[in-house]
Design brief:
Oligomer: single chain
CATH superfamily: Winged helix-like DNA-binding domain superfamily/Winged helix DNA-binding domain
Number of domains: 1
Structural class: alpha+beta
Strand order of the largest sheet: 1-3-2
CATH architecture: Orthogonal Bundle
Shape: globular
Radius of gyration: 14 Å
Largest sheet: 3 strands, antiparallel
Mean pLDDT: 84
Helix content: 40-55%
Low-confidence stretches: none
CATH topology: Arc Repressor Mutant, subunit A
Length: about 100
């Protein structure tokens, strides 16, 4: 088997695992619009900082999101990867996520 196909399959599997959790999909929808700090992601997702941080950690290990530090603030964004950036599930992110969700 061509190693490129196996690598592509591994990327697809990681993306499917990320989309398999509604909270992670919500986080990815939020990040599909902007690079944001954890506290802003948590506010928009209507979730705790701890919960969002755990999901972001998994997404980062899967190379679906990347982060950068600016002083004490860590910003997250969708990884610069054509495979992820052109994903239909991210392209159809609802516009309602521009504002915080209130339970």
């Amino acid at each position: 088997m061509d190693p490129t196909w196996l690598e592509l399959a591994e990327k697809q599997a990681a993306l499917c695992r990320a989309f398999g959790n509604p909270r992670r999909l919500l986080i990815l929808w939020i990040l599909s619009k902007n690079e944001l700090p954890v506290h802003e992601i948590a506010a928009r997702a209507g979730s705790s900082l701890q919960n969002v941080s755990q999901h972001l950690s998994l997404l980062k290990r899967s190379k679906i999101v990347t982060s950068r530090r600016d002083g004490q603030t860590i910003y997250y964004k969708i990884a610069e990867n054509d495979y992820i950036e052109h994903c239909p599930a991210l392209l159809r992110a609802p516009d309602v996520l521009e504002k915080p969700i209130h339970d």
